[in-house]
């Protein structure tokens, strides 16, 4: 593993890690709300690393990246973060794989930089919407705990974060998995969580104009981003491949890593350089 500090939008310093085959096609993994690049452990420590160049980053405000106030409501900043990683690491037509909120970040990138410098798009339990237009696609249990995890009261946010981690999968996490995931959720400050949730975006027009190959991976038991949004994305992008995971929740890359890794590898291999 190689660790990088990369200057993103507005001068914010991002923590980025590189794994796998330095000569392979690049996959840039973009995690979701309140997570970190560690969520992709079952990808970077798998056979994917034999063939592909695997890049993970802690998005702004998360993990080991900087966590300033007032740096989360400008789509250009998010787009610049991804562009900076691509340019600094000299990634050649990478596949962008975005989980949950990572789907919105991909949309931010496409809005400002277009499709020219990427090879393919992978939406994973992804949302492209924030705000009122997103509510019909969010699970009721998730909506119910939102106030808690946005709170700066420790007891309230602590319980809500535990509930949030449990909602990320359809089954039960082992104690080791639960506390590992809870750990990197806990390091995200309340002001960052509020900053991410305060935005209002739709992106339907943008998605309907995508020309690149697209893979959509979504658990049919997702309690956070409902499967109806994946189906909506498929309607907007008719050429996309929709892969639904039976009995899987919000984290197909964790809950069924073997299938997820195989489908991602097959998708990237078919892309034209």
Provide the CATH architecture: 3-Layer(aba) Sandwich
Number of DSSP helices? Answer: 12
Secondary structure category: alpha/beta
Instruction: Give the fraction of residues assigned to helices.
Output: 40-55%
Per CATH, the superfamily is Alpha/Beta hydrolase fold, catalytic domain
- What is the CATH level 1 assignment? Alpha Beta
Number of strands: 8
Report how far the terminal alpha carbons are from each other: 25 Å
Overall shape: it is globular
Q: Ranges with pLDDT <50 over ≥5 residues?
A: none
Lateral arrangement of strands in the main beta sheet:
1-2-4-3-5-6-7-8
Rg, rounded, reads 17 Å
How would you describe this protein?
- The chain is an alpha/beta fold and 273 residues long.
- The protein has a single domain (2-269), classed as Rossmann fold (3-Layer(aba) Sandwich).
- The chain is 40% helix and 17% strand.
- It is built from 12 helices and 8 strands.
- The chain has helices spanning 41-44, 48-51, 75-88, 101-113, 140-149, 154-167, 175-186, 190-197, 204-207, 227-236, 252-255, 257-269, and strands at 2-7, 13-20, 26-30, 53-58, 95-99, 120-124, 214-219, 241-245.
- Helix 3 (75-88) packs across helix 4 (101-113), helix 5 (140-149) runs antiparallel to helix 6 and helix 6 crosses helix 7.
- The longest helix is centred in the first third of the chain and has 14 residues, at 75-88.
